[in-house]
User: Which sequence fits this backbone?
């Protein structure tokens, strides 16, 4: 059957009725009928909730006791779809996690889409559907959004901004400046999965593997840890720049020396192999579903118990400690007993030749 | 297999080897390792701190990225700017500073520059883009020569008309000779590059050891291999012997890999090469044979009119010859760092300056 | 060209320089090209040298619990 003969809509079992071969055109961003149709057909069915359905230009949220925590993130990952996730899931989880590591309960998100002319509506629907799953998993509501369209070549398919808010009750003192000498440093699982998954999905390096991005919402896990353990000093999710970058930030905020033990750092075999082949240091490669926890040493085992029983913490490990040293820096004790400094990364990591 | 790579990282075996090294070292010695991969491994494992304090490990010009002549980097940039060209390269060449800019900035300005893991991937790019010229930056020591040559042979077999290579292939033994023959040479023992020797064999080092009375030990890359290589070198120095020893026998043989050598000899012939920071070393590299001239990017593209201008501040040459250490350079950490490098050794992750910058910085108080 | 497993990651690799390589052999690969096969015999020999050294040093420092007396 030739394409022209088919009905212009896909068959009725598809939850979203879409015209065949339909692509985003400039008109979808103009604010008129096409925009309204796009929102009704693609966004609303999946993000539906009272705030969004009210169709105002704003969302109104009741206030609570404590502090308002707010965070924003822009997502420009390429490729848009990679093993283990996509830009949509990334957009939701990234902001949810940023709020959650403050000790706040993430409640509401907004999402702004900048879409390139010519983008397939079907792919947009896939991304939105993925966002919906992530929202459901994290228990967060999408309450406002915006869509713009730019000319071909001015965006990489789609860029997404998400901004999130949550409330934090005043008795949580958690933040990068709270690490104390004697504290244990824990990680919730294997490192570098996301960065390597995205790199291998780009296809330039022609590698076959089972590596998947670890992108995940961590607010559930954080909530359990917060309400079970007596004292937590720092939560951070080590995203762009990897664990080493995050620990450097914390070391500088807290004015402490952090020492890691290389042999305790969890890495999956394929990720370790990939990093070696390309000359990447996994400590500097992005993660999107991992948690650094810094807390008193005496509570470390209890924390590890909780982590290992959670689906996002099964490979958790204690990987280092805050020392009583006077220098503000991050050190790594290597496999063979040497020590090296983990400094901040300069520039982009490029695959090495030998 | 009944062993694995991890066995050569076993911390208790490494400690045993280090203890033995400590036991037999009675005098100060200066040993040079001449492979970028070894420099990287030593710094990555913090091995240099675990050696007896009287042993000085000096990093030689074993970083192919660092020694690629400035003129060739400028030519690469000029070729990459052409709209009809897709320029393919190993990743670490992208940030090597040319006279004005680097390949990275060419890409940022819209030039088609692609990182590839292998020149055989560049062949695929040429097949997929028949209307474009695909150029591969064929740099490296003898370790990349077989694969770079293989790509030219593949282009010939496939009848590809749109593939060419910009060659900067260099060889280790002439560089070692240049270092050893210099009046200011301090090097007393050499760790030879394991993978270079796995291709070439190590028979070329016999006359060098003999002539300069210097022990040369073929060394691998895992921590145990490195300590083992250093151990055998120091043993020789303490016993005043100067022979070539193979501390990497699981991969290296005296005659090397015949099939690989055949491929290299078919496509390449020895030529004089300019080493950035060192100067011209006669017969120190390879260039394409005249039968393969059609694959030579320097002939295919007009790159005249390039004005080469090296940084006046960068002391890469002295670093590469092991005469100075990076922290002795006035620009180190001041004007020169990995995001704004003045010279190649700060760019490549095997370059001595980059290794020192990343692994030996002191934290702030 | 053949598929080589680097440890959970597979890549097409040119085996032209290692015609003697068989399925299951270990090779040293550089930039998508196998340079040599790995000799198991030599690997084990090298490891044994250091294992012996380790045993000897344990005997010397009296760390070996199996020693009688």
Assistant:
């Amino acid at each position: 059957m030739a394409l022209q003969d088919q009905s212009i809509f896909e068959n009725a079992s598809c939850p979203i009725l879409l015209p065949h071969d339909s692509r985003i055109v400039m008109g979808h961003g103009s604010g008129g009928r096409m925009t309204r149709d796009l929102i009704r057909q693609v966004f609303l069915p999946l993000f539906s909730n009272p705030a969004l359905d009210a169709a105002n230009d704003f969302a109104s949220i009741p206030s609570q006791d404590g502090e308002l925590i707010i965070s924003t993130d822009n997502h420009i990952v390429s490729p848009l779809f990679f093993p283990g996730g996509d830009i949509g899931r990334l957009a939701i989880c990234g902001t949810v996690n940023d709020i959650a590591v403050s000790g706040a309960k993430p409640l509401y998100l907004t999402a702004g889409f900048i879409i390139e002319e010519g983008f397939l509506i079907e792919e947009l629907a896939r991304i939105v559907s993925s966002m919906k799953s992530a929202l459901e998993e994290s228990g967060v509501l999408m309450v406002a959004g915006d869509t713009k369209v730019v000319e071909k070549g001015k965006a990489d398919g789609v860029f997404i901004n998400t901004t999130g808010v949550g409330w934090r009750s005043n008795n949580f003192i958690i933040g990068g400046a709270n690490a104390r000498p004697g504290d244990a440093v824990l990680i919730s699982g294997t490192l570098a999965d996301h960065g390597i998954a995205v790199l291998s999905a780009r296809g330039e390096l022609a590698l076959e593997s089972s590596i998947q991005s670890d992108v995940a919402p961590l607010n559930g896990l954080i909530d359990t840890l917060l309400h079970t353990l007596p004292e937590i000093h720092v939560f951070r999710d080590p995203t762009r720049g990897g664990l080493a970058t995050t620990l450097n930030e914390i070391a500088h905020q807290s004015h402490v020396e952090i020492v890691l033990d290389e042999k305790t750092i969890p890495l999956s075999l394929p990720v370790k192999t990939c990093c070696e082949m390309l000359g990447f240091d996994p400590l500097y490669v992005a993660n999107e579903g991992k948690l650094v926890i810094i807390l008193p040493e005496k509570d470390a085992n209890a924390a590890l118990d909780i982590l290992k029983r959670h689906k996002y913490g099964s490979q958790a490990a204690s990987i280092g400690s805050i020392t009583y040293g006077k220098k503000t820096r991050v050190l790594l004790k290597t496999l063979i007993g040497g020590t090296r400094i983990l400094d901040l990364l300069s520039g982009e990591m490029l695959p090495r030749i030998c | 297999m009944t062993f694995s790579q991890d066995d050569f990282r076993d911390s208790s075996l490494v400690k045993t080897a280090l203890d033995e090294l400590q036991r037999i070292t009675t005098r100060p010695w200066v040993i040079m390792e001449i492979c970028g991969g070894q420099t990287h491994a030593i710094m990555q494992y913090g091995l240099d701190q675990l050696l007896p304090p009287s042993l000085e490990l000096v990093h030689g010009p074993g970083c192919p990225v660092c020694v690629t002549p400035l003129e060739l980097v400028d030519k690469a940039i000029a070729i990459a700017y052409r709209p009809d060209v897709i320029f393919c390269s190993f990743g670490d060449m992208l940030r090597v500073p040319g006279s004005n800019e680097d390949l990275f900035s060419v890409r940022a300005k819209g030039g088609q520059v692609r990182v590839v893991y292998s020149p055989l991937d560049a062949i695929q790019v040429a097949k997929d883009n028949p209307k474009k010229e695909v150029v591969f930056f064929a740099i490296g020591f003898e370790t990349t020569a077989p694969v770079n040559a293989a790509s030219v042979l593949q282009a010939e077999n496939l009848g590809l008309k749109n593939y060419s290579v910009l060659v900067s292939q260099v060889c280790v033994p002439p560089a070692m000779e240049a270092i050893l023959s210099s009046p200011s040479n301090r090097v007393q023992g050499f760790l030879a590059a394991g993978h270079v020797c796995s291709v070439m064999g190590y028979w070329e080092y016999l006359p060098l050891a003999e002539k300069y009375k210097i022990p040369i030990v073929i060394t691998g890359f895992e921590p145990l291999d490195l300590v083992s290589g250093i151990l055998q070198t120091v043993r020789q120095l303490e016993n005043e012997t100067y022979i070539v020893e193979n501390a990497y026998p699981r991969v290296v043989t005296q005659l090397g890999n015949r099939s690989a050598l055949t491929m290299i000899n078919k496509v390449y012939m020895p030529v004089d090469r300019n080493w950035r920071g060192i100067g011209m070393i006669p017969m120190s590299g390879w260039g394409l044979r005249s039968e393969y001239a059609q694959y030579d990017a320097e002939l295919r593209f007009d790159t005249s009119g390039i004005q080469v201008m090296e940084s006046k501040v960068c002391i890469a040459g002295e670093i590469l010859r092991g005469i100075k250490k990076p922290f002795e350079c006035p620009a180190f950490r001041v004007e020169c760092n990995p995001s704004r490098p003045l010279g190649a050794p700060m760019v490549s992750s095997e370059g001595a300056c980059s290794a020192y910058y990343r692994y030996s910085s002191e934290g702030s108080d | 060209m053949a598929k080589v497993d680097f440890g959970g990651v597979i890549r097409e690799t040119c085996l032209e320089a290692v015609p003697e390589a068989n399925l299951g052999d270990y090779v040293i690969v550089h930039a998508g090209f196998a340079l040599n096969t790995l000799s198991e015999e030599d690997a084990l020999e090298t490891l044994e040298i250091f294992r012996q050294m380790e045993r000897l040093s344990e005997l010397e420092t009296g760390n070996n619990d199996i020693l009688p007396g």
